[in-house]
Amino acid sequence: QRCCICRLRGASVTCRGRHCPRIFHFPCGREQGCVSQFFGEFKSFCWKHRPVQRVRAVQQDRTLCLICQEAVAGRPCYDTLVCPACTSAWFHRRCIQGQALRSTLHHFRCPLCQDMATFQEEMFRLGIKIPDR
Q1: Residue 62 pLDDT
Q2: pTM of the prediction?
């Protein structure tokens, strides 16, 4: 199969969006904004069908990432995630992914409100890999 991003052979990740024909290499997909879920059926989605946050979150002035303290986008998007429990904690995708890898499943929670269940469920759905150990 040819990758829909780089056009080279050997693509094996298929988008699980309804009737979507896109197939891509995992690294190409990450660069293009595709999401792979690391739980359940291990579904992957292209940039057009990836899950999005449905959180109603309002920023106060210029919001910063809670982890790196740099500015985040003005609304939840692929690169900017929000805690679904408190809606006050904003993160860059790369920052919260790093936090998840360091914390592991048994300690990964929202750094602000400390919610674990709702936070982990949403991060899993959005493609954040949370290792068991």
Answers
A1: 82
A2: 0.90
